Amino acid sequence: MGGEIARTLELLFGHRQVVELRAFRGREVTSGYFDDAEALTHAASELDGHGYAVYVTLNEVNPALLARTANRT
Second label for 39, Cα 20 to 30 Å away, from 16, 17, 27, 66? Predict the structure, then answer.
């Protein structure tokens, strides 16, 4: 599954663009900002494995937001 996630992210966002990951499970919500596709793929896979619904936003993200939660959720 990780390979499919990585290919999709590369197709949608290219290389080193800041991407916002969001995930929810019931009332629990988590999110993070990533510019490392490998870290994003790992986080998405981990969250999915714990029963979270995981998605990325398609809107362009201000790179300054990376300072909030850089490459982690």
Answer: 27
Cα–Cα nearest to 24, from 44, 46, 54: 54
Residues in contact with 9: Cβ distance below 8 Å, sequence separation at least 6, in sequence order? 19, 37, 40, 41, 56
**CA-based nearest residue to 44, from 28, 27, 35, 56:** 56
Note the pLDDT tens digit of each residue in 44-70.
999 999 999 999 999 999 999 999 888
Q: How many CB atoms lie within 10 A of CB 28?
A: 10
Count other Cβ atoms within 10 Å, centred on residue 12: 11
Q: Residues 6 or more apart from 66 whose CB is under 8 A from it?
A: 18, 33, 34, 35
CA max distance for the chain: 32
Question: In 3-43, at which residue ranges do the beta strands (DSSP E only) sit?
Answer: 19-25, 28-34
